Amino acid sequence: MREDCAAIIVAAGRGTRAGSGVPKQWRMLAGRVVLAHTLEALRQAGLSRLVLVIHPEDMDKAQALSAPDVAIVMGGGTRVESVRAALEALAQDAPHHVLIHDGARPLVSARVIADVRDALVRATGAAPALPVVDALWRGEEGQVAAAVSRAGLFRAQTPQGFEFNAILAAHRAHRGEAADDVEIARAAGMEIAMTPGCEENIKLTYQADFDRAARLIAQRQGHDMDIRLGNGYDVHRFGPGDGCWLCGVLVPHDRALQGHSDADVGMHALTDAIYGALAEGDIGRHFPPSDPQWKGADSQIFLRHAVDLMRERGYQLSNCDVTLVCERPKIGPHADAMQAALAAIMGCAPDRVSVKATTSERLGFTGREEGIAAIATACLSRTVPDV
Length: 387
What we know:
Largest sheet: 8 strands, mixed
CATH topology of the largest domain: Spore Coat Polysaccharide Biosynthesis Protein SpsA, Chain A
Region (2-C-methyl-D-erythritol 2,4-cyclodiphosphate synthase): 228-387
Catalytic activity: 4-CDP-2-C-methyl-D-erythritol 2-phosphate = 2-C-methyl-D-erythritol 2,4-cyclic diphosphate + CMP; 2-C-methyl-D-erythritol 4-phosphate + CTP + H(+) = 4-CDP-2-C-methyl-D-erythritol + diphosphate
Number of strands: 19
Region (2-C-methyl-D-erythritol 4-phosphate cytidylyltransferase): 1-227
Structural class: alpha/beta
CATH class of the largest domain: Alpha Beta
Radius of gyration: 25 Å
Helix content: 25-40%
Number of domains: 2
Site (Positions MEP for the nucleophilic attack): 150, 203
Keywords: Isoprene biosynthesis, Lyase, Metal-binding, Multifunctional enzyme, Nucleotidyltransferase, Transferase
């Protein structure tokens, strides 16, 4: 029987590199917020005293996760300050051991946690790690400057476990920042045992990490996938001007597209495709052209709104495809830039976005160069949540 152990879940950060503007720990993943998965993983490993460290702005969201085994603590301005606040809260009724875990690691396994706890029987600190297997370089100004030996190098993971009084004293003595709690422990002279990490114990940082995590959850739980397709179509006529906004790129031309907003016909079609997959109508429903505030608006506003709505519903973008129909301007030289622009706006990998063009063989209004048409398809997916 292991001695009592508490777990601190660090979730006070504001990281939004995964897109959507929502801190990653509060993003939807397989029908639930990330932190719900993280808390459940710790419970399944036998932990029943959990301390969730949050940003003050997230109290309402945290209340939705409240349970008898979860205490909520307000974090500080840095990770070190947040962990220290949680340790001080636990000190009022100190456990023998404490695990400190990243809230954005929702796939930690019971095996990884058990190995850390077992190591604490003979060590004052323990942490999971994976050996570095890739070649390492040092780079300077976009160039490879030198090869770096990977001998003896490991990738750190969490949870990192410690004898409680020892790590509390180490944090109280520490000044400044630290990469993790092992750094603080070692600065205090503590010896840290390494335990086996796991490749699936990923820290969610970018959209690709969310995509991978959703696939892993589906595989673990044997859930079906909810897959939705949406189509979008838009047209804008030419008028006076010297360039067209197409898929987020200003393409030089002897005319410009006319519209209530910036008339980005490709982005409008893609936005409608995402709305369509969600059964949410079209741009006009969410941004009425009769409303003067949208006159000349950047179409990124519309696309980001559709993507945010998609993620709030627990979906992710599997892929999308945009086809621009026009004789001129020529799209090919700008297609890569358009692909990159759309991917950046949606917070996804560029290889999930296709942009291409075709002509109408001089037929119809596009053939007469009166305007440009765009057709888009979007595929959204999520794992079917438990009911």
